[in-house]
Design a protein that fits this description.
3 domains, alpha+beta, 5-stranded mixed barrel
């Protein structure tokens, strides 16, 4: 099973890219956010989710392990296939998905192409109160971005806010607050900031959210 491809981007088109890995060109299905970070002729590294079906083997590529893990988690909801999961990841970062799920914000999911009101409600309901997916556990070893030019932007997008939220949730749980309540409080608190807050500020506002609920 393929878990990652690293090589040179030969082509980045609509919905797919070809990555040359030692002379073998891998055709990878990608969302628009990932494709926007790829540049033809430049180094590329993608986290891969391989889906095997009776007549096909399809590789789906992501700029981060968090995105790949959420791609899998979203498909645990009945009615959500690869296409819908990619559409959601095109409009919501992993951190934003975590917030939308914690707050049962069906409107956020309904903004994705191909996700109707009923499916959006099911996604919000089924993911509510659940901790974010753990992923494969090696993200720190593969933090280089999809392309060298996307450097710091790729590291910060969807990663720093996820880690910040997770640390805040863990801190609240250490205070004896149930995980589902901690997730909701942190999601609501995070939405009050225009930029990523410090961990201390996020925890303080989260505690206020718990006090007002």
């Amino acid at each position: 099973m393929i878990g990652m491809v690293s090589g040179i981007c030969l082509m980045a088109g609509t919905g797919e890219a070809i990555i040359d890995c030692g002379g073998v060109g891998y055709l990878v299905q990608c969302g628009s956010k990932t494709l926007a970070k790829l540049s033809e002729g430049s180094p590329a590294r993608l986290h891969i989710e391989t889906i095997v079906r009776e007549q096909s083997i399809t590789l789906f590529g992501f700029a981060s392990e968090e995105s790949r893990a959420w791609f899998v988690r979203l498909q645990s909801v009945q009615g959500v296939g690869p296409k819908a999961a990619l559409a959601i990841l095109d409009i919501l970062s992993p951190g934003e998905i975590m917030s939308a799920a914690a707050l049962e914000d069906k409107t956020a999911f309904a903004r994705a192409s191909g996700v109707g009101p009923k499916l959006a409600t099911r996604i919000a309901t089924e993911l509510s109160g659940k901790a974010p997916p753990m992923g494969r556990g090696f993200q720190a070893a593969f933090t280089p971005p999809v392309t060298a030019a996307a450097g710091e932007r790729a590291r910060n997008e969807g990663l720093s806010d996820m880690r910040l939220r997770n640390d805040a949730v863990s801190a609240l749980e250490n205070l004896g607050i149930a995980q589902s309540e901690a997730l909701r409080a942190v999601a609501a608190a995070f939405n009050t900031f225009t930029d990523n807050p410090s961990l201390d500020d996020l925890i303080k506002v989260s505690l206020k959210e718990l006090g007002s609920s």
